[in-house]
Each structure stands twice: as structure tokens, then as C-alpha cells.
Amino acid sequence: MVFNILLYCAIIGQVFASTDPELIVPETIQAFSDDVVVQTRNARIGDVVELFGNNGDEPITAQLITKSSETSTLIFNCGYFFNAGSYQFKIRSTEGEILAFSRPVPAQSWPEVKIDWERTHEALTTDVKVSLTVEGKMCKSDIARQNKLYLKMKKLDNGNNKKGGLTSLIEGAQRQFKIFPVMTSSETFIPSYTVLPCEEFQNVGMYQVELFMTSPTDDVIISTSDVMNVEWSTDYNLKLLKHAFPCQGAGVIVSLSFPPCASTEDSVRLLSVSNGTMKIVDSQKRGNEDHVTFSCSSFYNMNQTVEGFCFQYVVKGGHVARTICEPVNKESGLKISGSWSPWVSWSTCKRPCQKTVSRRKRVCDNPKPRGGGEICPNKNGERSLTELAVNISDDVIPSNCYASGMMSSIDDDKQCDCGCSIKAEDKGVLVSSLTKHCKDSVIWTLRVPTGHNILFKLLDYQLARDEMLTIRDGRTSWPMTSQYPTAMSKSNIVIIQWVRSKVEDNLNSCGFILSYEPVVKPTPDARFTSIPRTTNSTLTGVGAWFEQTITNNPVVLGGIAACFLIIFIMVAVVVVHCRRKNKKSKIPPGLRTPMNTRLSMPPDGRSCSNADDTESEPMVRPRPIGNAGSGEVLPDTCIPMQPAVGSGTAYYLAQRQLELMRRLGKDEHSQTYATGCMSEENLRQQEELLFGDRRSLHKNEDLRVT
């Protein structure tokens, strides 16, 4: 009975249940990311679901219910949810009555957009690229692209790198920023990068950019960049093409150097110098030229107290970028106080287990102090020719650095940074300083307990090319390099020498980290035992020198290769020449000369080459046989013979004459043939002497003897 009553009550409650419209909304919304799905219950055809944002009185958009069903699903485009905050949905009837409304739905901020650009930049040198990286899903609908993206570039007060504290980019301007449109991407809505023109960075200071989007109701800041520090460019320079005094011709021509985006409104000033005081005499705008000319009248209309003149490059806005000075009389000199050049760009050094150090410097050469003028004052009020600025990061050093022994045992605040004596009982680390002015050669003396040697290991090596780290032990020294990072001394006392760069405060050098450890003294053969990076071989000091100076130097290797190539070519030429000469000497002389020459001259073209003749100068050629000359005949030279016939006889006689002729007297023409040399026996001897077997020669018709 009770069960039936309960059942009837449930049925009656269901029949009379409320049919009022309801809204089902998500718990949270990601702004400008995904579409938002909303469901309705008991809504009628013609009812409208409206979207309100951030407590607005006017709806952002609305959707009409077109189907008659208990539950309807509506999808709202992500482009409407462009701002973080809260959103609310309402159901409105066709008569305008609010039938239902949802609770406020919180909207989280946009998907993260990271802005990257340079941390330091030189004014008016290059365009600046701004990279935009989206981390997450970004709304890409057509409704989203109806909104506009912009970059807002702000210039912060000098020394203030926090948000706010804005100043005008252009002096006298009312606005505090400059806006650049950003082209949206059809695929990602936010492009991967945009470029700001270099002309916009014509003043030094700290800059920051914001990415924001405009909409009909509000502007939304999407992301903010880090601060970029803009310094004056070091490309500005002045140069006189010739000595200004005495001024001649068209005047004094000043050649100009400037960065690529420099304004044509830049100018060059001419100033007179008298008793250390400068006074503006003339000024010329640069225009589109790379030089300016000052007429001679600008220099001559001066009184006798003028000691010289200075030229200044003045950028648009009044900053003096470069100054040079010229005395009226080179011998008398010119008293000029020095002035700082612009800071160079930051240089960063990252070393293991050390905080990141950024450095930059400036030089007192704008102009240089001369003639007793004052040297530039640094930030501490001290006078110096260079000034080094250092910025140490707040990096957290990993805990394993302490356990691995990578931490320095020498503090930056101690005097040991620039050399000292160290007495070590245990292992330690020597770290070169990046923050102090040390002399050109820094020396540490390291002493460990007696009976121990010292094991050295390079943990980091970032020296400049003209720097050297050397360990000396008595009479032996050992250079430490990245190729040979480990060495063992024999003595318990060593000297560690760091020869610094010749360029003062060279920012290309990040120094070294050298660990040392006392070890029980072994008995090595050499004073130092190196442990090269390649452990398959051990080199002595000479071998290490050869390895570092020769094999690791491509210039030296190239020179050695060129020398070997030249020597090889010279040897090859000599060998070829000797082989040709040897081959030629094996050919019968008669076959090397024409027939008419054989009958009228000796084979070697000389008049005599007798064994008794020791003179080396060439002799006069004798006349043909039969006209021997005016000299006497030597009857004992040859065996008398009957006159021979045929050209062959004359030919062989010509071959034999080298032994049969004698010089008569001092006159080089006093030479003759012995008639007895024409005998057949002599001819046979000549033939055998010159050609060997007669029978083989008779086969050649040209050589047959009649």
C-alpha cells in the first residue's frame, strides 16, 4: 500500500515538474583558444542565447534556437572570447524577457605568446627582428582575424628596466610609444616574426615591445618582451684626408664613416680650441655624402690664441658620436682633454659551474687626451684610458658543482685573482678573473706538501688566440691547451703563468678554469708528464711542441707541403734532364748531325778536345779536310797512310780528330790534321772505337766505308 502511494506521487511529480529553460555551460574558458560549447534545456524555437563579457550591458553575440527539442547544443566561435575575465550566457524570449541566465564563467588568459628580440643593439645599424612564438592552441577563425594585431614599442627611462616609467621616443612628442601593425597569419593568426626598421632605434636607451590586439570593445595586451638596451654605434668616425694646416685649395675635406641607417640630417661641427676651451666655428650637414668640406676662411678668421681645431660628428638629436682634433702647429702640440667613446656591445662568458658574466668596455679616444689634457674619468671618479663594465647574472649554481670540485677555491674579492702564492694541502680550482684589471702577465706560485707532485686538469679553456697558459717546473715549462688539458709536475712547487691578450680588456677571452691536486710523488723520466686528450700516445716536450706548433697549425702544414712539392718538381726536372742527356750520348755522333756537317766539322762543334788540352773555352772550328790550316803537321801523331777515298773516310776521320789533333803554339787557329791519320788502319781503329763491330755497321749504307 505504501509503495503504491510513493509510486503515484513520483508520477504526479514528474507530470507537474518544472519546464523552465536552463543553461549548461563549461566550468572555465581559455581566452582566444577553443570554441565554447553551451547546451540549453526546455528552450523554445525562437528563443535567443546571448553572450555577455566582463559585466557588459550589451551582448557580444547571440544565437537563435531553431530546433524543437528538450536539449539543444550551441557552439560559440573562439573569436568572441578575446579577453580574459568572465563571461555569462542568457536565454531571452521572443518577447524580450530573460528566461534563464548562467553563472559567470571565468576565462583564463590567452595561450602564452613569447616575444624574443636582441638584448643589446647598436643604434641605426640594422633592422630588429621580433620573434613571436605561440605555446598552445590559438584561435584562427575569421572572426578572430577581424581584430588587428599591433606591436607597441616603448622607451624606458635610463636605468629603469622595469615596466612603466615610459618616456617619448621622439623628444617633444605627446605620445609615450610608437605602434607598428602586425600582419596576421592565415594559419596561426599570430605570425612567427615581424621586423622593426632600424631608423626607429636612433636614440640610446632601454626599449620594450608589447603585442596587443584591438577589438570593437577593448584592447588586449597579449605579451610583453624583455628589455633591449640600445647603445650608440661604434661605426661613426672622422678622418682628415690631409693635414689641415696650412689650408689650401677648396678647403679641409673631412671623410665620414657612419652606420647604415644614419640620418641625412647628421652634421659635422668645426670647433676652435683656445686654452682648453672649444668654440663652435662652423657646421655642415652630411646629406647623402660621405664627406664634408670646410672652406679655408673658417680657419683663417681666428685670433692668435687659437691652438687648434676639432671636428665632431653630431647625430640627429644632438649626440656627439665622434671627435678628432688637429693642432695648428704640429710641433707645439694641442692640449685636449679626452672623452669616452660609446660602449661596445655586451660580450657574454659562460663557464661551467660559474655565474654568467657579461662585459663591455669603452675607450678614452673621442678624442684622445693630448698635450697634457685630462684623461677620461670612470664611474668611480678615477682617470683611465679604458673602462670595463661587468654584469654578473643571478644564475643558481647546481649543487653537483660543489661535489665535483668545479667550484673555485679563490674568491673574486681576493687579491689572488691577479696572481699570488698558494699553499695547498688538498685539491683546488684556479679560475681566471673576468671582472678585474690584471697586468699583462699574471703569475701564481703553487706549493703542495713535500713528497708530492701536482696533477693539473683544464676544466674550461676559452683563451683568446694571443693568450697562453703555461706551467713551469724548474727548467721545464708546459703549455696547457684544450688539446693537452692534463699535466703532472715532478716538483711540489710550480709556477702558473697566464700571458693575457695584448688587446687591453679583450672581451673575446673568457679565461680558464684549472684544477690542481697533490698526488704522491712518482718517478717519471721527464720533469713533466703530459696526458694528452688522445691517450694512445705520450709525447715529450719536443713532441708536444711539434704537435702544437706544426701539426695543429694549418698555415705551417701548408707551407711544408708547398716546400715538398717544389722539391719534388725540381728533382723530377733534374732526373728527366739527365735521362735525356744520357740517352742522347748513346746515339752515334754521326746520327745526330746532318751529312754535310759530318764532312766539314768535328761532331762536338769544336776544333779540339784533346786529352792534353785543359782549356775549357770553346775553340774555333777548323776548316774542312784538305785545308787544315797554316800550322805544322805532327808526323808522330798518326801512322803514315795512303790518301783514302770516299766520304766515309772523312766522316771517321772527323770522329777520330778529337784524339789526333794538337794545338800548335798559343794561337787558337794554329791547329792542323795529321795526314797520316788517313790510313786505313787508323780508320779501322776509329770505327771499332766508336761503333764496335764493323760487320754490324756495314749494314747501314750511310755508314759503310769504301
Proper CATH architecture of the largest domain: Sandwich
Q: Roughly what is the average pLDDT, rounded to an integer?
A: 75
Which CATH C-level class of the largest domain is it? Answer: Mainly Beta
Structural class designation: alpha+beta
* Count of individual domains: 6
Residue windows where pLDDT falls under 50 for at least 5 positions: 11-17, 159-175, 409-413, 534-542, 590-647, 662-666, 696-706
Percent of residues in β-strands? 25-35%
- The quaternary state of the protein chains shown equals single chain
How much is the radius of gyration in Å?
50 Å
CATH level 4 superfamily of the largest domain: Spermadhesin, CUB domain
What is the CA-CA span between the terminal residues?
Answer: 167 Å
